[in-house]
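Question thread 4412

I'm putting together a teaching handout and wanted feedback from people who do this every day. The idea is simple: show students a protein as raw sequence, then show them the structure tokens that encode its fold, then repeat with a second protein so they can compare. Below is the first pair exactly as I plan to print it.
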Amino acid sequence: MKLLRYSLFQYCIMLSCMFSFASCKKEKVNGEKRVKNLSTIDIGLRIPELRDTRNDTIRLVLYPSAMFYFVDAGLTQSENNIKLFKKAIKQRLPVRVMVYEDNQLEVAAVYPATEEDLARFRESSLHNDN
């Protein structure tokens, strides 16, 4: 009877260790990025502000809009988008932003502003400061 209790106790400990190791196992990321080819909408010039990062999602605000937008870091083009956002923030310049038509809060593409866009932006910001 004592031997049976001892064996049962060992079995329970071993089983609980196996479950805890299995539940703590992290998925290995294979490093492959996804491609999302959907139709997009140009929302125009926006001034970006990065907010936070959770898992592979980067949240940001694109002024003058007061909504949160996000960039899926698991997409192939997202690395370039994030670089352009950071450059625009550092230089305090707007960027041209495209969002997906089916989810208009997800950033599809980011392009640097043209000289014409920048001239209009500077002109409008000078008038707004007065």
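The second pair follows. I'd like the answer to focus on this one:
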Amino acid sequence: MGMTGQRYSGELNGPVEQRRSGVGRVLAGLRLAAVSAVIGAALAALVVGVILKDVPVLATGGGVLALLVLLAFIGGRRGAGRDAPPARRTALARIEDLRATGGETADVPVTFRLTVAPEPEDERPAYRVKISQSINLVDIPAYRPRGIAVVEYHPEKPWDVRIVTRPTPEWSRRAEEAEIDSAPESTLVRDPDGGAGAWCLLVLVGLLAGAALVVLSFRGELFASGDAGGSAAKESSSSSASSSSASRTFATSTTVSGPSSSLLTFGRMRVTAMELEARVDSAYVTSLRIEDHRMAVRGDSARPLAETVHLPSLPYELLPGLVREARATLGVREADSWRIDVTPGGGAGVGPRVRVTVSGTEGTAHLDADVTGRITDRRAVGVS
């Protein structure tokens, strides 16, 4: 049984916590809408007072705005005195999936889906979270699906998780020995403030509602003054529905050119692989072929994940070293060409196979390696 196997009983409290969080968000939304409506009404009162030259209306709008500013100042001072940032906690997490989303620099933005397993003293069940963090190109091969990573998180903000790229020796040992079960998708936590667009829309609606209430209250005087006019244009947007097929096969390739165009240049393989991943819209392929100036992938969405190659987790930074090793040790003194073929492993738990083939006037030779760059077989020129 995994490390978290006995901890899902805490999920019974999940619906209660979610209801509490939902009620809190509804109350916060109502409060925000009410304050926005008051601000909109006060601003509209200022404008109406100026147009109608009505001093009481003008004074009322200005007084309400001044009162709101004063309350906001007092509330900010009180909140600053009592809000202390919660201490971060260290825990282990299972990497469910990862995908690199860029590659222009040495630090690559990577999106992780994790199962975080807090320490027992936190009294919190394991949960899922989705984060984005920049990882150095050299360190990316250390993070693979179903692997264990050391993370830090805020107990009061479980969605605020960061991977510790340089953990202490003790946590590194625990990560190597740990076995963590995947948490259900229903335990996925999100930043409640992440939907900034919805809150902005709520503020806008409140402002408009408050302003409309004041304008409608004085519509007779405004129309009589001859200053009423203009109408607001409305736009509607339609959302496009996306369709996806149940199964598809794909194949694509790309050729690199220009200065330092060889794919053996440091970082060039990973950047090119991510471009192909974006082109086929899939991180899982059935084969990957790399040549000096060309890279190609093939895939089948119907294949089980165990029979595919996960492009972001391949050790591209180690592959140029394997090419140099093949050129130097397999009896091909002057290699005219080289090729790297990456194919899925032979079964569950077996990583992808890497074969480096070099050809020259002496003939063709190859060596095989595993996904960590360890050479498992050599076939020199003339060896069948």
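Top answer:
Good format. For the second protein you could add a caption like this: The CA atoms of residues 42 and 61 lie 4 Å apart. The mean pLDDT is 80.
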